[in-house]
Design a protein that fits this description.
This protein is an alpha+beta fold. Helices cover about 30% and strands about 15% of the residues. It is elongated and about 140 Å long.
Length: about 350
C-alpha cells in the first residue's frame, strides 16, 4: 500500500535535500594565511636582495670608473716623463710617493700676458717642464685619528709647482752665471716675473683614495724604490747637498760647481752626471685602494716587510685597482736599468731571489 504525500507545501512537490556544506576551519585559515605570508615574504626578500645587489653593482661600477679615470690620469702624466731637467732633480720614487719631471706644452696665453707686462725687456718664456708629485697625505699632527687609533689619511695629493728653477744656487757659480747672461741675454737671477705666475698649491684630488703603492720594474724584478738622481745634487755641487756648500766639482775648483762652467745645466742638458743618474725604470706599477693600511711602526725590517707584501699579494682585495705604465724613454737594452736595479736592491739589503720577478 503506497502512502500518499503527506507533506505540505504550496506546490505540493517533493523536497530535495543535499549534503551539508562545510565552512573553512580555523586551522585551515591559519595554514592559508601562513602560506600567503611566506610567499609574500619570499617575494619581498628577493626584491630586497635584488635591489641591494643592484646598488652594490652600481657602487662598484662607479668606484671602478672613478679609480680607472684617476689611474689613467696618473699614467698619462708618467708617460711624458723626462730624465733631462734644468735643476738636476729628476725621478724619485718610493712606495707611497713619486716625484718626476714631465714635458708639457706651456700655456701660451699666460706667456703673452707676461710679455705685454714686461714690455721690451726680454724675459725667458714659460718652461715646457712640469714637476709632478703624487703621494698619500697623512695627518702628521697626531691629533686626528681614526677609530682604530691610526692617523687619518686625507687622500691622494698632487703637487705641481708652476716653475722649475733653472738656476739652483748650488750649480752655477757667479762667473758662470755672468757668462751665461752675456751669451743669452736672460737674467736668470731676476725673479721680478715670478709673482706674476699663477700660484700653485698641493691639491687633494681624490679623498676616496686611502691606499697607494708604487713599484718600479728594472727589467727583471719589481723594486719598492727608484731614484734616478742618484745623489746628483751632491755630485753636481761637489760638496754636501744637505748644507749646500760648494766643493771642487768633478776635478775643477769650487767656482765651477758642476765640474765645469755650468752652462750645460742652465741650457737644460743636466750638466756632467753619472750615467746611472738618468736611468728610468722600464715600467711603473700603480695601485690605489679605498682601505687604509697603517704605517709600520718601530724599526724597519726588510725581510718582514717583503713577507707581509707577499701575503698581501696572495690576498684578493676588491677595493684596489692597479695599472702598469711602460716608459718608452727607458733604456730598451735593459743594461742600465738592470744595473741600477741591482744597486737599489743592494742598498735596500734585499738578497737575490727575494724580489718579485717578471711581468705577470
Amino acid at each position: 500500500m503506497r502512502r500518499g504525500n503527506t507533506g505540505s507545501g504550496s506546490g505540493g512537490g517533493r523536497h530535495r535535500s543535499g549534503p551539508p556544506r562545510r565552512a573553512f576551519s580555523l586551522l585551515e585559515m591559519v595554514l592559508a594565511l601562513s602560506l600567503i605570508i611566506m610567499l609574500m615574504g619570499g617575494v619581498y626578500g628577493f626584491y630586497v636582495s635584488t635591489m641591494q645587489a643592484r646598488e652594490a653593482a652600481v657602487r662598484s661600477m662607479r668606484d671602478t670608473l672613478l679609480m680607472r679615470a684617476l689611474l689613467e690620469q696618473m699614467a698619462e702624466e708618467i708617460r711624458h716623463v723626462t730624465d733631462i731637467v734644468p735643476d738636476n732633480v729628476g725621478f724619485i720614487g718610493t712606495e707611497e710617493e713619486l716625484t718626476f719631471t714631465r714635458l708639457a706644452i706651456p700655456h701660451m696665453g699666460e706667456a703673452m700676458r707676461l710679455r705685454d707686462r714686461v714690455g721690451d725687456d726680454s724675459k725667458p718664456g714659460l718652461q715646457d717642464f712640469l714637476r709632478v708629485t703624487y703621494k698619500l697625505e697623512w695627518d702628521t699632527s697626531g691629533e686626528n685619528l681614526d677609530e682604530d687609533g691610526t692617523p687619518v689619511v686625507y687622500g691622494l695629493l698632487r703637487n705641481s709647482p708652476p716653475l722649475i728653477d733653472p738656476n739652483p744656487a748650488y750649480q752655477l757659480s757667479p762667473e758662470a752665471l755672468t757668462k751665461l747672461e752675456e751669451d743669452t741675454g736672460f737674467k736668470l737671477d731676476d725673479g721680478a716675473e715670478l709673482p706674476r705666475l699663477p700660484p700653485s698649491a698641493p691639491e687633494i684630488i681624490a679623498p676616496e683614495v686611502k691606499y697607494l703603492r708604487f713599484k718600479y720594474f728594472d727589467g727583471v724584478n719589481w723594486l719598492p724604490r727608484w731614484q734616478a738622481t742618484g745623489g746628483s745634487a751632491q755630485q753636481a755641487s761637489g760638496g754636501d747637498a744637505g748644507t749646500g756648500e760648494l766643493g771642487d766639482g768633478t776635478g775643477g775648483t769650487g767656482d765651477q760647481g758642476a765640474g765645469g762652467d755650468g752652462s750645460d745645466l742652465a741650457a737644460g742638458l743636466g750638466g756632467e752626471r753619472e750615467p746611472s743618474d738618468r736611468v728610468l725604470p722600464q715600467a711603473i706599477q700603480i695601485t690605489i685602494g679605498k682601505v687604509k693600511v697603517p704605517h709600520q711602526l718601530g724599526d724597519f725590517d726588510i725581510g718582514q716587510a717583503m713577507e707581509e707584501e707577499r701575503l698581501d699579494n696572495e690576498t684578493w682585495h676588491p677595493d684596489r685597482w692597479t695599472i702598469r705604465v711602460y716608459l718608452r724613454q727607458a733604456d730598451q737594452s735593459l743594461l742600465s736599468t738592470r744595473s741600477h736595479g741591482i744597486d737599489v736592491g743592494n742598498d735596500l739589503g734585499i738578497e737575490s731571489g727575494q724580489l718579485e720577478s717578471g711581468l705577470r
